[in-house]
Design brief:
15 strands, globular, binds adenosine-5'-triphosphate, 8-stranded mixed sheet, single chain, binds magnesium ion, alpha/beta, Rossmann fold, 2 domains
Length: about 350
Amino acid sequence: MTQQEILEALQEVKHPAKGEKSIVELGMVQSVEILEGSTIVTLAFGRRRDPLAEYLIGASRAALVRLGCPGPEVRTVVVDEQPAKKPLELGKEGLAEIKHIIGIASGKGGVGKSTVAVNLAVALARLGYKVGLVDADVYGPSVPTMTGTEGRMPLAENRDGKDIMIPLEKYGVKWMSIGYFAKRGQALIWRGPMASTALKQLVLQVEWGPLDFLLVDMPPGTGDIHISLIQEIGIEGAIMVTTPQNVALADVEKCVDMFKNESINKPIFGLVENMAWFTPAEHPDEKYYIFGRDGGARMAKELGLKLLAQIPLVQGIRESGDSGEPAALGTGPDSLAFIELAEKIAQI
Ligand SMILES: Nc1ncnc2c1ncn2[C@@H]1O[C@H](COP(=O)(O)OP(=O)(O)OP(=O)(O)O)[C@@H](O)[C@H]1O
Ligand SMILES: [Mg+2]
């Protein structure tokens, strides 16, 4: 591995707010050290906090990992820059015009949180509400694909010395995802605190404007990221997504416990049973309970939660997720299930 190869790899790391120039072009790479068993890249940042710093550090580390550098490490130094600008404060003022901030959570991965979050957002917009959605899954963002906004880049504007990102708009919803700042298929590698900071920026450093609902598509699990996310952005409460099989119960329970935990103590508005039954496209009236019948209702009862919706497992929902046109835009029974869910959420 040579310094030149590393610099070439770092050319791939573009600064989204600086005309897509690479960190190398921008002179941010202060040093590259190739030691035995470790590779240390030092990035220089100005005193003013760069809103995308955490992203750039993560992307640089990912570039080193992809190149196969041993022991990749990205360090930062602060350099003086002129003229001095106001320090950036990630206050919650930007959220002042948002009526409800709701997390879409589940203890378990792959149960359809993102599918439910995206479709609920579209359904609420169809009902006439002003809606935004943050893809808080910094490790595996799926909102860009599910909404067909992949490859687009949110603009950043400087307001009074603060860089503010403008969310993308499509289907009447404002979308924000770390995925907009990464290349397709690029692995995002974060350490816990970096992920938390990046996430905070994705919510707090965005010009949402007035919204009735800001939905937060949470990453799977119940770790530190979740707790800081809920506390720092002031999530009002959560919707829990699950699949009906018995083995999902323990994960849902863990997630419910997290929200009830003393340091969080936020309400859970109810449970959404996803993949409640399977309906083949050619036999729309048939229901096959492949993960067991009424699992969602049983879980809801056991946990003292409302069952907000039952979403069928249909090929169309998967296809619409892959094609970037959410099922909730349509008129079929799957679309209706999301509209009904939206009507319930609108009562919160
Ligand atoms: N009701 C459904 N019918 C058909 N396919 C579905 C349904 N719900 C989700 N899927 C598909 O299942 C896959 C996983 O869904 P999704 O990405 O929404 O889950 P997730 O809980 O957000 O996952 P992760 O934990 O990785 O964030 C996707 O391909 C999605 O299209
Ligand atoms: Mg997801």
